[in-house]
């Protein structure tokens, strides 16, 4: 009588485990919140904002920052919002030669969450609220 082994070889098992691990890794990365993306954008915005404010003060001229639907345009940079976030309409902020910015709020939303950039101190300082 002939003995027949039915089963998978070690190589076949490793290939299947590798595929499953890849699918799980990809699924977990897509389901994690985008906080690192938002934090990275916030850091880039802060750096560019400070640069524009200092430029207005050093050159003693008015500078502009324009919040568009998908990005914010500054004198030397165009920052795209974090993935999925949008600004309704267009909003321009004037930075006076003194560094003054009129109090206002800019809201970016992605449908379920928001990022609010609140310019309430008049001196060009701002705070960020996130949901």
From TrEMBL:
It is found in: Cell surface. One of its GO terms (biological process) is establishment of competence for transformation. It comes from the Bacteria. GO terms for cellular component: cell surface. The chain crosses the membrane at residues 7-28. Signal peptide: none annotated. Keywords: Competence, Membrane, Transmembrane, Transmembrane helix. The keyword Transit peptide does not apply. This is Type II secretory pathway, pseudopilin PulG. It comes from Leuconostoc citreum (strain KM20).
